[in-house]
Amino acid sequence: MRSSAGFFLCSLLLLATHCTQAADPEVQPDPKTPCANWMGGAPGHPGHNGAPGRDGKDGRDGLKGEKGEEGPQGPKGDQGEIGIAGREGPRGFPGQPGQKGEKGEGSFVHRSAFSVGLTERAPPSNVPIRFSKIFYNEQNHYDASTGKFVCSISGTYYFAYHLTVYLSDVKVSLYKKDKAVIFTYDQFQKNNVDQASGSVLLHLNSGDEVWLQVYGDGENNGVYADNINDSTFMGFLLYPDLDVH
């Protein structure tokens, strides 16, 4: 009994000595040790989050990855605006001739022409010579009953005459609107057949008249025609005035 009590007392003394040394104010006891007032304290509240740290340096680029599989085709986009025209390219080689087209409708052409001949010998003087042999008078602008050409289309005309001369001299003139424009004289040579001719360009207005006429006395009307000799008178429109197009 005494030995047990002595052991217990000795233990208490050792423990007290240990706890006294551990009570040093500079050294905080571990709350989990038996000397921390014999019991651990309650857990504390979590502290506040600290301030974020600075960004680290960028890392190096990694190796290029392998090419992925082609994706499905997307929908067609809207048509863009027309761009500026580019420079003209070089001229190409000529192509092959195409097929002949169909004949088109011709535009209206102004026509006026006549060609006539003499049928009687020695026409009277100082009146229009009536050329009654008609070679061409499709537009009927020449009047065989009067021997006059009557202008229907204003424009520039060409007139000419070729006369056979026989039996007497010939003096003829071409008249326009009762005024002689040109004169032709041929002196007859006996035992021969001669020719007298003349031509002129005239501008005519619609309604103007043109004709041939023997002038002077009856001794100068040697204009002649038979079955083998002709005396002719002709004229035609070269081009009409612009205001009749």
UniProtKB/TrEMBL annotation:
Main location group: secreted
Region described as Disordered: 24-106
Signal peptide location: 1-22
Keyword list, A-Z: Collagen, Hydroxylation, Secreted, Signal
Bias type Basic and acidic residues, positions: 54-70
Species lineage: Eukaryota, Metazoa, Chordata, Craniata, Vertebrata
InterPro entries named among the record's database cross-references: C1q_dom, Collagen, Collagen/C1q_domain, Tumour_necrosis_fac-like_dom
Domain of life: Eukaryota
GO CC annotations, alphabetized: collagen trimer; extracellular region
Name assigned to this protein: ADIPO protein
Subcellular locations according to the entry: Secreted
Domain C1q: 107-244
